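Input sequence (121 aa), recorded before submission:
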Amino acid sequence: MLSAFMREAGEYSRAFYEVVLPPIDIYELGGQLVVEMDLAGFAKDNISIKATAHTLSVTAKREEKTDEVDGVYLRQRPSRIHRVIRLPVDVDETVEPTAKYENGVLTVKLTMKGAKRVRIE
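Predicted structure, token format:
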């Protein structure tokens, strides 16, 4: 009975983490809007990114290791994440965003609309 309770509690906590995670940072740097998102444990090939002028959508899936284990006591790590982020400024859709995935952190750079880098002489 305790085992069933723990399994059910793990599923509820997993669903919770799939909704509230991953943590993100958004900041401006040199005319670009930078979004950093923690996606540790997800393979780069299983991450999908879509950007519009107002939103950034990130979806990631992780393969389950069910046949490699003898028993499961608790599963809290999310198997999938879908996060739509409302961007604080408009971004230029004519400029291709760039993305980098390193050490479990996804970094997306989007050019802000109307932002121009000023060179100082």
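Checked by second reader. The radius of gyration is 18 Å.
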